[in-house]
Design brief:
The termini are close together. A four-stranded antiparallel sheet has the order 2-1-5-6, with no helix packed on it. A four-stranded antiparallel sheet has the order 3-10-7-4, with no helix packed on it. Strands 8-9 form a two-stranded antiparallel ribbon. By secondary structure, it is mainly beta. The chain is built from no helices and ten strands. 0% of the residues lie in helices and 64% in strands. Strand 5 and strand 6 form a beta hairpin.
Length: 102
Amino acid sequence: MYAIIKNGGKQYKVQEGDFLNLDKLDAQPKDTVEVEEILAVNDGEFKVGTPFVDGAKVTLEVVTNAKAKKVVIFKKRRRKDSKLKKGFRREYTRVKVTNISA
């Protein structure tokens, strides 16, 4: 059984036991979060929502809140003596999929 969920403008295909890095959620470790924006579910038969599947839920358990590795943005314009260097670290919430109900 798997489901396709929507979170933060992105779509994820999840199964029970999977670990995901979602955009930062307001939740502490060991909290449970329910996602009801389910785009599709496959539990023997494939159901597609319009836009979401009615009555479908995915339960997630928060593992940790963390920051990703630094991404360096470097722009250089040749022969102009113009350079720009910026860094950025994405904050994310690592979750484990505990239950999918259709």
